[in-house]
Design brief:
Number of domains: 1
Organism: Myroides marinus
Protein name: GNAT family acetyltransferase
CATH topology: Aminopeptidase
Strand order of the largest sheet: 1-2-3-4-5
Order of helices and strands: EHHEEEHEHH
GO molecular function: N-acetyltransferase activity
Structural class: alpha+beta
Oligomer: single chain
InterPro entries: Acyl_CoA_acyltransferase, Diverse_Substrate_AcTransf, GNAT_dom
Strand content: 15-25%
Number of strands: 5
Keywords: Acyltransferase, Transferase
Number of helices: 5
Length: 157
Amino acid sequence: MNIRPATPLDMTDVLALIQELATFEKEPDAVEVTVEDLVREGFGANPLFNVIVAELDNRIIGMALFYNRFSTWKGKTIHLEDLIVTESMRGTGAGYKLYAEVMNIAKREGVRRVEWVVLNWNDPAINFYKKSGATVLEDWYTVQMDHNGIEQFSQSK
């Protein structure tokens, strides 16, 4: 198994993994991003994210998508947006290797925190993260405003 930086040619496989994750998270119709979006936003002059992939026998079986953020308390941080291994390859160590590589990148870049969200019903992931030394913050809520909310808010001013 090989962990490597993704290329624009990998984005079709990455999008398939994103869709698989959305289905796993019980939101199969939520994915709006396209291959073209991923290529444009991840590989242009000012990329908005990084992607690493797990590859086995020249086939992408997993990916981790992450980006830099800035914390007013910690300074430079990394947000791990998604880490997914295709269902048939779970339990092979691919997820651990992707996770470990994100942490290695964080260490090399001198970031002070890596953060991500996990659904409260995803016990295998929660247990894995806790076992790895991560802290699961149960007293914080993730807050989002979608496109419709942004439009409504903008019009209410």
